[in-house]
C-alpha cells in the first residue's frame, strides 16, 4: 500500500499515512488538536475538517481531486440530516487517498483561543476541565453480573482511555434511567481536573455545557456564565453581596461574627443563596437550564472565602491573620450551596496568597501574568483593602494594605457608591479655580449647555471614588490644596469657593439652591490616609524586591478601570511611572476566574505560582510606617516622581502658617 | 559504643542495638507491632512494654538488672500522674542498656486479635482503618503565611510520614478552634483506607474512637458499636427495618417504588433515620458520645443497598436484575443520613456480588473465608432470598435462590415471626404420632409438667421458621407425611391428629379449647417450594463446580442458627453431608461487617474476592428447573443422601392412591 503526505493546518503538523487512514486517526497520531465527542462514530460532527485543493507550493504539496475518500453512508446521512457546510468533511469518516492539506477550523479545535477585550489582555486558550465523551455501554448480562456504573467505567476505559473516574452519589441515582433512556449510549461529562464524572446525558449530548466564573466581592458578586466549549460568555451579571447588611466592610463582618454567636452561619447562608440565585438568573438570561452548569470557579478575598466555606472568619480579624486553609479547593457545588446547578457539579476555588491577600488577588496574578513577562510590574487592586503584587518572571511579591473605604466613597462628606448621579470626573481651571465635572450616566461635562437636561433624571447626588480622587488631584494641580493636603482660605486661593466650614476650609464643587457638594478638609485627610497606605504597600514591596523604578503599573478592579492614571499619580496613590505605562486591567479577578474555568492548566499554574509568591505582611513591617508617613504629602514628601514632573508642574503653595484650623490640629 | 541483643516477644523478632536506643525505636526498626499515638513524646502510654528478667535459655539471652535505663523524668512524671503497672515501661522513654527480652503486651499491639465466639469463627486481627496521630503544629507566622490546614498537613508529613490527606469541609470548620484549644497540639483521626482526616481533637485524645458495624436486613437492622482500638463490642442492638410498612419482603418494596412515584425516596428516608437513631441509641447504651463514631461499615442485600444510597431499586425487580453499582463504596456518613456521628465520619459499604447476591453475602464470604480453606464448603444464608456460596481456595461460586418467605413463617397457616410464644422445636413420637414441642422463651418441652406455667406469659402463639422445618421433617420421620409431601388420613397414619380440613388433611400440633395449631397440607407445599428452591440453587452451584459431595455445610444468618441440621437434611433443604460437618455460623454477615470495620485489609480482600467469585443466575439456568422439580420430594426424588441414611431410616409410606385431595390436584 502506498502512503501519502498529510499536512494539518494551522498547526503545520505533517506525516505520512497509508491509503484509507481516517483523518481523525491521522490527526490523533500527529497530536493535532481536533475535537471529538462521539469518539469517531460520525454522529457528533465535532471533528469537521476542510481539505484544501490545488498546489500548496510553500508546503511542497499538490492536492489532487479525490485526495480524501468520497462521502460514505455515515457522512451522507449526517449531511442529509444536519447539513455539512460546503467543503467540510467529518474527520472520522473521510479517509486519506492521496497527498492532502487539511485545515482544522477553529470550531473543531479543543484548544481554540478566546480573545480578551482588555487592552493588555492575553487571550484565554480553551482547555476546559470538563469535556464530553460519548460511549456505548454494554448491557447488563445475568450470566456476568456487574453494576451499570462498572460497565460505564469499562466503556470509558476502553473507548476513551479514561480510568478511575469517581462519581458522586447524587449522580449515581441518575445512572440507570439515563443509560436506559439512551439505549446504552450516553454522553458523559468528565471533569479532567478531578478525574470525575459530573453529568450524564442519554444519547449524544448536542448542547454545550456551561460553567460559571464568580468574583465574590465584599460589595458585589459578579459572574460570567460561559460556554465550556467555545469559552463564549453567554450571560454576565452581578448582585449586591447580601452580607452588606451585616457590615459594610470586611472587618465589620468579622466583628459581627465575633459579637453574634452563629453570625458567621447567617452570613454563610445568605451569600450561598445569593450565588445560587445568580446562577439561576444568568441561566434564565441566557435561555439555558441552570442544571447544565457543571462547573464553577470562585475567586474572593479571604473573609469571603471563609464565609463561603462556612468557616468562622474570626482568625482573619486578628493578628496573625491565620487562614483555615490557603490551598486551592475542589468541592462539590452543593457543599457551597449551589443547588440549582447540575447535581454533581464541581466548584474550584483559587488558592489564597495570605490572610489578607486572597484568591481574588491570585486571580489577578493569573489574569495579568506578570510572572510571564520581563517588565517590573506593579499590580494594584483597589478596594477596602488594596491587594498589591509586584514583580516579573524572576520573582513576585504580594501584600495587602489597609486603605479603608475612602476610595469607595465612604468616609467622604458627599461620598457615595458609583451609581448614576455620582460625580466621577472633575476638572478645575488653574486660573479661575472654577470646576467642571461629569456624573455617571452622562458623557457631558457640567459646563455643557445640555448638561442639566441630560442629568435631569439622575440628579447630582454625590461624589464616587474616582470622582474624589480626581477632585483632590485637581485641587492640588490648581493650587487650592498644598502639598501637605491643606485647603487654602478664600484669600489665599483667590476664590470664594473656598469656604470656612467650622475651623477648616472646604471647596465648593457644586450648589443648587440648598443642595451643595463640598470637598472638605476631612475628605482630603481621608483620601491622604488611604493613598498613603496604598503607596506605602507598593513601596514596601519595591524595597523587598530591591527596585526603585517601575516599568509598568496595572490598576485592577472595577474601580481601577475608572481611575485616571495622571490624577492617581498627582495624588501619589501609586509610585512614579511613565504615564502611558499605567493601564487599567478591568475586572482582572473576574477574568482570572474565567481563565481558570476555561483552562484547567491555569489552575495548576496559579497553584504553583501562589506557592512561589513572596508574601509581605504590611502590619508588622517597620518600614511600612515610615513609608506611610512620607506618603502623606501630595504627591509625596521626598520621592522625586520624575515621570510625573516631566509632564506637569504642581503649584508650590503652602497654606500652613495662615490656617487656623491647621494650627489647632497640630 | 557497644550494642546489645534485643528480643521482642511474642513475635520473637530480634536485633542488635546500641546503648541508649529507645525501645520504641528498636521496635520500629524491627517491624515489631508496638502502638504509639503521641509519636514518642511519652504522653500517650500506648507503647508500654514489659522487660523480662533473668535467663531465657531458649532465646539464648540472660537479662541483667539495668538492661533498660532507669525511669527518666518523663516516665517518672507519667507514673506519678497516671500510674504505670509494676514492671511496665514506656517504650519511647526506656532505652536499651544491655541484652534484653521485651514483652509487648496485647494492649500495646495494634494488630491484636479479637476472638470470635462462633464455633468455627476465625479471630479478627485488629488493623483498623482509623488510627489516632498526635502532632504538634507550627503556629501561624505572618511573615510566612500559610493556612492552618497546610501546617497541620506539614506536621503529619514530618511527624508521621502521612501525605496527601484529604479533609471534608465540615471538619475544616472545626480546625481553627481545635488547634487553638489544643495550643497547637492536636490528635488527628486518620482513615488510612481513604487517606483522609476524619476527626480532630485538641491535645492528646485519650478516649478510644468508635466504629459501627451494621447489618441492614430487610426485616431487622442489627449493629455493633465497636472500640476501634481493641475491637471490643461496646454495645449491640437491633431495630425493625421501618421499610416493612412499605412491604414485608424485598419485591413488595420494589413494587411499592414502582407503583408510587417518590416511594423509593420515602423508603430511603426512613431507613436512614433508623440507622442514625440506632447509632444514637447504641452510643447511649455504651455511655459514649455518638459524635465519637468515626467510621461505619454497612452490609445489606442489593435492594437495601440501593434504597440506602437513594437509588431507585426498580431495576432489581426485573430481569436482568442490574445493579446501579456493584463495587465497594466509600462515602461520607452524612451522605447516607448518619448525621449524629462525627461530622467527617466515613461509611464503607461492601461490594455486591450480583443483582440478587448482595454485600451481605460478600460479608458472609468474608466472615466464613471458604477461599482460605481446602474443604468443599457450601454456605447458605437463609432468608426470603437464600444466598448460596460454594467452593474452597481454588474457586468460589455464588447464586441466590428465591425461597420465598415460608422459611420465615410467612405463608404458613399458623406461621409467625420468631418471637416469644412461637413453636421453634418439634418432636413426634414415631409410634404414637404424638408431638411435643418447645416455644421461644422457655427451655421446657411441652410434655414437661411445668411447661404451662413457664409459657403462661407468652402463650403459644404460632410456629416460627425453624419450628415448621422441624415439624415437617418430624412428620416425615414419623410416617405422617410421605416422600411426596402428602399428609395421610387418620386411618392411614393411625392418629386422630390427622384431620380432614376441606379436601386435604392437616396434622394437629396443639389445641387449647378453641385455639388449635395445625400443620396443613398447604404448609407442607409452601415448605416444599422453599426447600426445593434452596436445594436446587445449591445443586446448580455443585454442577458448575463439578462436585457431587460436600465436605462442609455452613448455615448462616440468625435463622440458620436455629435450624437443626438433621431436620434440614431430612427435609432435603440442603444436599447430603456428614451431619457433624453441618454447622451454624450465627450472624456471619454482621460478623463480616465487623471484620471490615476492624481490619482495613479485609476490605481489599473482599473486594478482590468478589471479583473472583463466579456468579450463577438461577433464573436463567435451565438445570435449575430440573433440580427444583426433583427436589420437591422429601428429602429428594433421586439423590441418595448417603450420610443421612447412615444415621436414620425414613418410613416407606405413600398416601397417594387413597388421598382424595391429592387425586383432585393432579
TrEMBL record, chains A, B:
CDD domains referenced in this protein's UniProt entry, alphabetically: fer2
Domain 2Fe-2S ferredoxin-type: 4-108
Residue intervals passing through the bilayer: none
Pfam families cross-referenced by the UniProt entry: RACo_C_ter, RACo_linker, Raco_middle
Listed Gene3D superfamilies: 3.10.20.30, 3.10.20.880, Domain of unknown function (DUF4445) (3.30.420.480)
GO molecular function terms listed in the Swiss-Prot or TrEMBL record: iron-sulfur cluster binding
Domain of life per record: Bacteria
Protein name, per record: Uncharacterized 2Fe-2 and 4Fe-4S clusters-containing protein, contains DUF4445 domain
